[in-house]
Each structure stands twice: as structure tokens, then as C-alpha cells.
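[Meeting: bench + compute handoff]

Bench side (C.D.) handed over the final construct sequence. Compute side (W.E.) agreed to return the predicted structure before the next meeting so the bench team could plan truncations. Sequence as handed over:
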Amino acid sequence: MKQIWVDADACPVVIKEILFKAANRSQISLTLVANHAMHIPVLKWVQFRQVEAGFDIADNWILDKCHPGDLVITADIPLASEVIAKGAIALSPRGELYTQSNIRSRLNMRDFMESLRSSGVQTGGPDAFSQKDRQAFANQLDRWLAKR
């Protein structure tokens, strides 16, 4: 049975709300994983797992539990890469579907930007989360739900 896993520490609230509704509507297991407590609705299909604080603890927990065909929601490019290698599907909260064909370039860009920041270059942050991002995410989620 396919499931949805969420790297929930940095996942926008609006995306979590979309996921709660989709899990309830589709009767699919949704597990949010974070290293801090968070409020989730009491729904049969929704679970929360709090893990210890620490570097990649939540990522490693998700990677250990997910199976081929599961959907993992994450903005973490290295986690997305490992999820894809395991045969699961990785989707960013902005609606970008990570694939075998695009993950390497995403990792390279992430590493490049990290090296710029570590050398003192101000790179700025990501654009503000928009209605377009929300819609792109909802569309990708609906496509995945329709295929399962």
C-alpha cells in the first residue's frame, strides 16, 4: 500500500493542509516527520512522528521507512536523491517533481550555491511561497494520487 511521507520541519502550513485533505479524501496513509512537536488534525489517515533533533535524523527516518512507489514531500535535495534511488517519488512543496533525469543537476546547483555562501557571497533566499507554487504542488499530488 503506497504512502505519503513528509519532511515536515520546513514544509509550509498550506502544503500540510492540502495533504491532510488529500489523505482524508483518498484514504491514504500520511506521515509527517519532524524533530519538533507540531499540531496535526485528528484524522484516521494522518500520523505524526517526532524524531530526535540532529542533522538528517528526520531524513534518515523517512528514508528507512519509505518504499518504492511511495511519495516523499521534501525540499531537501540530498534526501530527494536518496528517495529516488530507493524507487520512491520525491516532490518539493513548490510542486517540482524530482526525477532521475533532473536530480543530478539539482544536486550540483545546490552544492554550487552552498560553496558560494560559504565563501561569503550573498545569494539571497528562495522566492516567497506563492499561489502558483501551491497550485503546482496540488496538481502534482493529484497526478500521483490518480496513478496509485
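W.E. noted at the follow-up: The chain has five helices and six strands. C.D. will use this when planning the next construct.
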